[in-house]
Amino acid sequence: MCRNIGNIVPAYGEMLGGVSAVVEYAVLALNVRQIVVCGHSDCGAMRGLAGTAPMTAEDMPTVNAWLRNAETARSVVQARNVGRDQLVQALVEENIRLQLMHLRTHPSVAGRLAQRRLDVQGWVYDIGHGRITVLNDENDQFETVREARERLQQRALRQRG
Ligand SMILES: [Zn+2]
What we know:
Helices cover 47% and strands 14% of the residues. It has seven helices and four strands, in the order H-E-H-H-H-H-H-E-E-E-H. The chain is globular, with a radius of gyration of 16 Å.
């Protein structure tokens, strides 16, 4: 378990920090079979990214720098002209897609994915309703846990048959 502001996984590259070490250790030493990147509704980090949180870049330069790892999600959501009331939820969801992409840039993850020894999933936890939605990697939309379970069971059957 690795928790941080904005459920961020920095992409693999020159700057390697704690999250990258956790990913590598979990995959190569602990042989985890599944990695879940989990965001949540009304996320303060995503509100910061949306510009609706009380904090500013000047107040919190380090948090601001960390959130650059989610900047691409903001760019995508901005391009879609999402309404003001939908903005934070759209960022929460787009940030999950982005961090899953980042996760796949880690050599340990890419290697195990290629061997089909690892699965990655994106979840959003809706705190108000106590519900989880799962990113469907076929249509890129979020679906209920029941829908995700059925889809993944079908896939497992196809792969076996
Ligand atoms: Zn949060």
